[in-house]
Amino acid sequence: MGRSIPGGPPSGAVAAKPERRAKGKTVARRIWLASRQSPIATIGGIIVAFWIACALFAPWIAPYPPNKLDALLIAYPYPSAQHWLGVDNLGRDILSRIIWGARTVLTVAPVAVLGAASLGIVLGLLAGYRGGWIDALIMRIGDTLLAFPRIILYLIIIARFGASALNIILVITFTAAPIIARIVRGVTLDVRNRDYVSAARMRGESTLYIMFAEILPNARGPLTVDLFLRLGYTTVTIGALGFLGVGLPPPDPDWGGMVKETYGMIFIWPHMTLFPAAAISSLVIGFNFLATGLQEMKRDV
After folding, report:
1. How many angstroms separate the CA atoms of 276 and 247, rounded?
2. What are the residues facing 93 on neighbouring strands?
3. Rounded CA separation 248/250 (Å)
4. What is each CA distance from 30 to 126, 245, 295, in whole angstroms?
């Protein structure tokens, strides 16, 4: 009963097909499966999708220009029929600034995280596969970067080179890459001597092919979870830099900058501070819920 049919594929090949199909799942497919299997992932996906929609359609759904001043509104800045979330201390519509701020965060954070992932993947594969002094050098440089309190490192670099979207992206890229490199290195050390990697070497495949086609797919699960967690962390970082006054330069709407401008009036006009702070929190929660859903899906598989 367990014999192969003459002329047909060997019995092991039948089991290999589902595995090969599973390896071909895209990140979007994993997110969709996670949202179906986990209510937490569904909630996270809805939150993130909401903010992505705000970012994409900000010019059409924001009721006012984000930097439009109206001094007459400062006397009564509370939420009203015309300004659903009220206005800030300069008479600017808070809802419009939050919507436009979503575009800022969801441009800077994904670019920074993708940059960190690209650099971390290359360094982690190289360190884990080559080993020796290359591994030691990459890991010691990473340890040195991680030894510094990251927010202080951000402040030093941005104070030296100036606050701009590009500088924030570069700072986050280079400070997050060592963490991602450690994840990829750990997976590489685990699988580099397995049979299918040895078979690729015997076939004469190049080092690049072995690292990216044979080893890297094994890191896709933990990397996907880490990237969503890192998106949440990066959102907090962008908000913290804005709050400290070294975020994106005005007049670009920045959720952290909005909190900074109004936190001194929180006991008088709390809505000015609480609404942008809630926007930061909700996006971070959305990313974290998605990461949790992906972890649950991985455990169930």
Report:
1. 15
2. 87
3. 7
4. 27, 38, 11
Residue pair 215/197 in contact (Cβ under 8 Å)? The answer is yes
**Phi, psi (degrees; rounded to nearest 5) at 93:** -65, 120
Give the integer Cα–Cα distance in Å for 104 and 109: 8
Beta bridge partners of residue 87, listed in sequence order = 93
Give the CB-side neighbour count of residue 62, counting CA atoms within 13 A. Answer: 25
| Two tokens, residue 191 | 């699988």
Cα(262)–Cα(89) distance, rounded to whole angstroms? 7
For residues 62 and 181, give the distance between their C-alpha atoms in angstroms, rounded to a whole number: 40
Residue 99: phi and psi, rounded to 5, are -60, -45
- For 112-144, the DSSP string reads HHHHHHHHHHHHHHHHHHH-HHHHHHHHHHHHH
What is the chain's pLDDT, residue by residue, as a tens digit (301 residues)?
444 444 444 444 444 444 444 444 566 676 666 666 778 888 999 999 999 999 999 999 999 999 988 887 887 888 999 999 999 988 899 999 999 999 999 999 999 999 999 999 999 999 999 989 999 999 999 998 888 887 888 888 877 887 788 888 988 898 899 999 999 999 999 998 888 888 988 998 888 999 999 999 988 888 989 999 999 999 999 999 888 888 887 777 889 999 998 888 889 999 999 999 999 999 999 999 999 888 876 655 5
Q: Write out the two tokens for 141.
A: 């440089």
Q: Which of 280, 243, 249, 283 is nearest to 261 (CA)?
A: 243
Q: What are phi and psi of 194, to 5 degrees?
A: -75, 165
Q: Which domains, ranges and CATH numbers included, belong to the chain? A: 65-285 (1.10.3720.10)
**Token pair for residue 4?**
């192969």
CA 40 – CA 135 distance, rounded (Å):
38
